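Reply to dn_fold:

You asked what the input looked like. This is it:
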Amino acid sequence: MDNNEAKNEEKNVIEYRQCHINNVFRSEEQIFFSQTNSEGLFSLHELLRVTSDLAVEDYNQRGMSREYLKEKGFAILVSRLAFRFHKMPVENQKVEVVTWEEKPEPLQLARNYRIYEKGGKELLVSGKSYWLVCDLKSRRLIPTSRFNLREPSTEVSDMDCLKPGKIGESENMELWDSRKIRYSDLDTNGHTTNSRYGAFIEDAIPAEYRKRVPVDFRINYSKEAMLDSQLDIYGKIEEDGKKLRIVGKTTEGCSFEAELYY
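and this is what came back:
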């Protein structure tokens, strides 16, 4: 390879960096073809996967891998999320995902997200999440004050999204979809991984909403959906078509609740 060829090769190299700056974890990403829907837009289930994975990686790079947490008797489970879409990321777009912990609540850890266009200042997505700390021996939830493996954040940010909160059922909800939980839906905790619920929602919503871009999305996780469970998904169109309320149920009870605002 001559010098010109080497220079051309260098020009074609695209680097994706990860770093911590003042307790904020930054990760450069690309929105790949497989992460988008039929309209070429970032899918809900991939948004849930990417943000969840980066929360795990944030802890991992701070010395708190899943294996380390397990050794210390802790498991951390996502409980509630809310995202606002200022401009939905699209196929092949280079983005920077930023996440950081906030001051925890008594029973929930708090984490924020922002997704920017890489190299620019345009904010694409903003979000907030709550996480539960579980004692692996007792399988019970514990106060966040007992999760003492790192110094908790004291920061509180005003995020441009809905606050994750209780959603609940609504009267006269219709059955929109039914599906069986399969092996590929599970994670290493033995239950349906949180990102799969985004795909369940995308499949269940009415056809006329599939090509529409929501402004806000919220989801709450309740009882875990296990292998071979039947998940019945109920929905209702509210507020003159500007809101979808969605609830998933198994025989064990409510599995998740979600809202999409348009």
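The CA atoms of residues 44 and 58 lie 21 Å apart.
Hope that clears it up.
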